[in-house]
Amino acid sequence: MDTFPRTLVGGVSLSRMIIGTNWFLGYSHTSRAKDNFIKSYQTVQNIADILTVFLNAGIDAVMGMPVPILQSAIREAQDRTGRKITLILTPHFNIVPGGDPATEPARVFDQCKAMGATFCFPHQCVTDALLDRMQGKIRDIAQYTAMIRERGMTPGLSTHMPETVPIADSTGIDVETYIQIYNAAGFLMQIEADWVMRIIKNAKKPVMTIKPLAAGRLLPPVGLAFAWNTIRDQDMVTVGTTTPDEAKECIDLSLAFLNRRLPDNVLQTTRSKNSLKPNS
Hints:
Elements: E1 6-9, E2 12-15, E3 17-19, H1 22-25, H2 32-41, H3 44-56, E4 61-64, H4 68-81, E5 86-89, H5 105-115, E6 119-120, H6 124-130, E7 131-132, E8 137-138, H7 141-150, E9 154-155, E10 157-159, H8 164-171, E11 178-181, H9 193-202, E12 207-210, H10 220-230, E13 236-239, H11 244-258
Parallel strand pairs: 3-13, 4-5, 5-6, 6-9, 10-11, 11-12, 12-13
Antiparallel strand pairs: 1-2, 7-8
Helix pairs in contact: 3-4, 3-11, 10-11
């Protein structure tokens, strides 16, 4: 049953929750040991199990890198559910001459198109390298967005820098959305959360927020309550999970917050909390 609210980005209908992939691909933002655990645990089957939970709730957008394991898991989850995933890819590519031929922009964009991407956004490592705060512009971005459009994909920008959104808005760059870090802990954010909150509020395009749980540093009820209650109706929250149960928990919590209800989720139980249990 489709239950999750939707929005429009560049004329494309998207679920307001987007499936993140760092916890599929091994980017924990915690330690090399945790990265290795994720990579050893996640298989095509396990990732497809998680994607199936999201798809069955009407959450049908995935953000990630153009890598084979993700492509295979998406194909399997789509076959299981009969539902199509909208793919948001964030590739990196050469921005100076003489780089690796395998990451020449045209070749990378061709790979994204072949993988079935609807949206293609230069990754943060590209966008933020091109951002010129002194001149108030994003250098050379027009040539990349044009190449994305030529391949029938929709361009956007992925960034960690707060200046990217207002500069892109003021210079009229051909993009339909922005990916912006936003969480209550300020994790990986370069300025205070209230400043980023205002940037998102004033953005001319819908914003895809990422890292709402600060890579596991925030409890899901805390991080999701902050994210959903401080963005606009057209904006989105990207959530990464490791297991189907985590996916279901994030979905249920998010629906409660979006409906202005306190969640009735099952709490963790430990011996130290025995004295808090209601009398039977």
